[in-house]
Amino acid sequence: MARRNGRKKNQLPDLYYEGYMEKRSFKDKTSRKLWTCLCGKTLFFFNDKRDEDYVEKLDLCGLISVTDDSSPDPNLDAARFNVQMTKENIKFTAPNAESRELWKGFIHCVAKLEVPLTLNLLPGQIHILRETVQKEQERLTNPEPKPSPPAAVKTEMPACYYEVPYLEAELLLEREASKGNLLLRPGKQKGSFAITTRQDVERPIFRHYRILPKPEGGFYIAVDKPVHFDSLHDVVAYMVEKTDGSFTPLNIEAHYDKNISFIATDKENGERTQQPLRPPEDPIPVTVKARNDEPEPVKNPPAADKRVEKASVTDGCSSGETRPVPEPRKLPPCPAPRTSAPTPPAAKPACPTNAPEKPRILSNPEMEKQILPAALSELKQRLGQKTKLLA
Q: Does domain 166-243 have CATH number 3.30.505.10?
């Protein structure tokens, strides 16, 4: 069970405690599991914790006692207790013993405005009960003015309200007989409503009751002895409670199909059949690279690189996996030798090395430029020697 502090529901007092319990009174044939909320001095019962409209309520102003029920139960973890009122005795079943003690404590606190001393609770839980008594005393001594509900709250309808006319209401109760036998619908007059019921006595019997609005606010059932109510929720709760549970509000859960289908006509024989709508094709899955070290492909590789990428070698493994040959290391291009000016001689290294120097190979233009001066100087020397001999 969960406890929510300070939460307020529409048109309900402050919430002190809530949780699932099984409720059974003298008029109930079987127990019902309901979501129970203790708001002020009233217990409100809901079919589900998410519902906004309560189906029953119990005013604790006439509380006499809250005692344990030691009768055997098939569920060993369940814990029963009795709420003795001035007019009736109501049996409740909590999920476990701890939640039973808490429910007994909260009910006794708001009804008697005191903390009971016979509960088996922890000190922290006793402190929460004392705070609950203080809050309830402040609420009773300083009642807050009720603000006018917003437009959205004013238009809220019970869960069994359906926008159907007179005859369609009977057909709806006939078709959904297993989900309820009472519904609320709009009436013929403006602002009026009607209740339609269905019961089986040798054959289905339908009854219709007019619900008319009062000038000062509220509604009443237009019968021989009118019954007055503050809201339409109270009208539905009255029909359920005062008939010993013979009427069950109709509650139809919405059903949604899982697949889309349509009616198609065969072009050859004209037969009409229901065909499923084909779902869109799944997107193409993204392929993952087999090896992380594989280089990414180049969109427009040069011709030399294409030849390298096509070549591959086979590993020594038995699987025969192939991998691309690594690309050769690219070197910067060598510039062509210039013919306009002679190349300067290479500088000698500062430190002599033991390795013999390689002979320098000169190109044809350089050889001509160096051989011609040497030949001229040699001819001059020979001519000089001959002139000396002749002299």
A: yes
